[in-house]
Amino acid sequence: MTSVSTIDDLGTSADVATLYHLLTRINRTLRIRGGDGANLSAGVAAALWTIINHAPIRLSALAERESVSAPTMSRLVAVLDEKGYIERTTDPDDGRAKLLSATPEGVEVIASARSQKARVLAEAIDGLDSEDRSTVCRGLSILADALGTT
């Protein structure tokens, strides 16, 4: 995938389209084979992960971090609240606002899912020879840096 030779109907280079497809397949495989017992959708799981890593957090800040609208985030948070994975406390700076934090059960759900996905990923990487393993790690690191991921 070092050269761009064709453009698809959407104006995307073939290499970018192929890379996006491969990343989608990897993500789907990790989600299915490394799934959590809580059966959380990807959006709900992502919101819970963000709450865990940025708590306490307001719903508006959570929506911004997840790049979704406040009403969409409100629905995702309602699922987490119903399952007992988050708790809401009053914001000391604004008594009308609520802060979201994960409960111990919420933290456990994400930790379990992460460890299962890590096992699936480790099995796949262990099946590679050392040169391919280094290439994958270097390529993903370069891509993450180029995307500005945190």
Task: Give a verbal description of the structure.
With 150 residues, the chain is mainly alpha-helical. Helices cover 63% and strands 11% of the residues. The protein has helices at residues 14-33, 42-54, 59-66, 70-82, 104-126, 130-147; strands spanning 57-58, 86-91, 94-102. A three-stranded antiparallel beta sheet has the order 1-3-2. A hairpin with a 2-residue loop joins β2 (86-91) and β3 (94-102). α2 crosses α3 (59-66) and α3 (59-66) crosses α4. The longest helix has 23 residues, at 104-126. The protein is elongated and about 55 Å long. It starts with 13 loop residues before the first helix and ends with a helix. The relative contact order is 0.11. Residues 1-5 have low confidence and may be disordered.
The gist of it:
63% of the residues lie in helices and 11% in strands.
What's the story with the biggest beta sheet? 3 strands, antiparallel
> Oligomeric form of this entry?
single chain
What is the mean pLDDT?
A: 88
How far the N terminus sits from the C terminus, by CA atoms, comes to: 25 Å
Write down the Rg: 19 Å
Strand order of the largest sheet: 1-3-2
Low-confidence stretches: 1-5
Helix content: 55-70%
- What portion of the residues fall into strands of 2 or more residues? 5-15%
Number of strands: 3
Q: Note the overall shape.
A: elongated
Number of helices: 6
